[in-house]
Amino acid sequence: MTKGRIFSGMQPSGKFHLGNYMGALENWVKLQHEYECFFSIVDWHALTSSYEDTSKIPERIHEMALDWLSAGLDPERNVIFVQSHVKEHAELHLLLSMMTPLSWLERVPTYKDKLQQLGIQGKDINTYGFLGYPELMTADIILYKADTIPVGEDQLPHLELSREIVRRFNNLYQPIFPEPKPSLSKSAILPGIDGRKMSKSYGNEIPFAASPDELRARIRLMITDPNRVKRTDLGNPDVCTVYTFHKTFNAEQSNEIAQSCRQATIGCVDCKKCLAEKMVNSLADIHVRRQELEKNPGRVKEILVFGGERARTVAAKTMDEVRQAMNLA
């Protein structure tokens, strides 16, 4: 017996790093045992800010599917699919756009911020697609009548707008859709190896697909306490990137590691080696699953086709109800 139905999606924007995994994906792996889950690679959403060059989208979809499956998402238990493979997303998005006040879209807090930020980067995203992003997101969610949405706090304004759109539709036509409620995900935030936010643009990321040797190499480059110059210097684990990772991947020994650092009974090299082996062991199953999938790329395509078929079955039924409610049947 599941708690309800979840929809969640990610844009195929490039290869995952470990921070991405510890953010949403690890939470998804846990939720799949409690909910009926629809997980979508939302390629149409990627066009809202990257419509000029679409050449890398197919490769990125494949890479994202690899990441999800190697992380442990079960394609039999979950519906895993590509958004554009289910055309009902576009139809419902169009119908919602007919009844959503423009002022609702313009008041989304992140809209003007992102418009300015991406504008500085030279991107022209003053488009309807970017403005209407929340409507497409709403269509994604309610097409499957999802009642629970795993989100971070920064996404709550978007979800609240979705709830408003649902209420407006239900009041104007028929009460077809449940109001989706947020499930705030609590996850560890991992810094990059230089202590800043983990980001590919900074070059400080740990690739999610890193092999054990690549993982060890990245950990060796991690920034430690800058005031600890010699092995005998007393350290401060609270300013050490390595210790931040220990708290996530070596929680049972983290207090001991901190004390040893403060007393200088462990050096930074040994501390990194200890962390590396803990992380290699912790991520071993992910690495093995990915190796197996990379040997059989056709399997990934089969899973996405299978997921698309399952998603379309649910989506088609929902759209029949929508058309009848709007007298479009």
From TrEMBL:
Protein residues bound to L-tryptophan: D140
**What keyword terms does UniProt attach to this protein?**
Aminoacyl-tRNA synthetase, ATP-binding, Cytoplasm, Ligase, Nucleotide-binding, Protein biosynthesis
State the span of motif ('KMSKS' region): 197-201
Motif 'HIGH' region covers 12-20
Reactions accelerated catalytically: tRNA(Trp) + L-tryptophan + ATP = L-tryptophyl-tRNA(Trp) + AMP + diphosphate + H(+)
What is a GO molecular function of this protein?
Answer: ATP binding
Q: Is Aminoacyl-tRNA synthetase there in the keyword field?
A: yes
Which Enzyme Commission number(s) are listed?
A: 6.1.1.2
Q: Does the keyword Nucleotide-binding apply?
A: yes
Q: Name one GO cellular component term.
A: cytosol
Q: Which Pfam families match?
A: tRNA-synt_1b
What is known about what this protein does?
Catalyzes the attachment of tryptophan to tRNA(Trp).
How does the record describe its quaternary structure? Homodimer.
By its UniProt entry, which PANTHER family does this protein fall under?
TRYPTOPHAN--TRNA LIGASE, MITOCHONDRIAL
What protein am I looking at? Tryptophan--tRNA ligase
Name the species this protein comes from.
Pelosinus fermentans JBW45
Q: Which gene encodes it?
A: trpS
